[in-house]
Design a protein that fits this description.
This protein is mainly α. The protein contains five helices and no strands. Helix 3 runs antiparallel to helix 4. This is Remorin C-terminal domain-containing protein.
Length: 153
């Protein structure tokens, strides 16, 4: 019996039941990639809306300050100089607040995207991590945007 060459059956490795999946190879990755793309698009869209809200806020505040300046310009010269200085300070303050809000929104967007990428990497490294668990983690992040928390800390 030992003189016979090994058969194909005897050369195969034992099958590990933990590594068997019911899905086609690669389909879980494609589902995860599709989920990832959908979530990243959702994040991007939400932060674009947030940027638009911040821009609208800035424009409205500047218009209001300009209208106030126009009313004051009709007053005597010393009042006009005072008002002009005040107006420049107000515009500068508005721009600082809007710039800070934009920076904070961008920082939050990058942080959230990094969290998604990290989650995806963990999911790829640990195949036993349930896809639904990752989806539940994402549900915590999707909450309504509150402009006052950024503009007035």
């Amino acid at each position: 019996m030992s003189d016979l060459p090994p058969t194909r059956w005897s050369m195969t490795q034992p099958v590990d039941p933990r590594r068997q999946t019911a899905t086609k190879p690669g389909s879980a990755d494609s589902m995860a990639d599709a989920w990832e793309k959908e979530k990243m698009a959702s994040i991007q869209e939400r932060y674009e809306r947030m940027r638009a809200i911040i821009d609208d806020w800035e424009i409205n505040k500047k218009k209001k300050a300009n209208r106030k300046m126009e009313r004051i310009e009709a007053k005597p010269e010393n009042k006009r100089a005072e008002a002009l200085q005040s107006h420049h300070e107000e515009i500068k303050r508005i721009e600082e607040i809007a710039g800070g809000a934009r920076a904070q929104a961008e920082k939050n967007r990058r942080k959230e995207e990094l969290k998604r990428i990290t989650t995806k990497a963990k999911r790829r490294l640990d195949p036993e991590l349930e896809f639904k668990q990752v989806g539940d983690m994402a549900a915590e992040v999707d909450r309504p945007f509150n402009l006052t928390s950024i503009l007035w800390p």
